[in-house]
Specification:
By secondary structure, the protein is mostly helical. About 70% of the residues lie in helices and about 0% in strands. It contains one helix and no strands. The protein is rod-shaped.
Length: about 25
């Protein structure tokens, strides 16, 4: 499940970065 978690985190990070990551900072 570790790989699965990394995949989710990577996907989430990419989504956030491309759709308003600056607004979170």
């Amino acid at each position: 499940m570790y790989v699965f978690t990394l995949t989710i985190l990577s996907f989430t990070h990419s989504t956030i970065s491309s759709s308003g990551g600056m607004s979170l900072k």
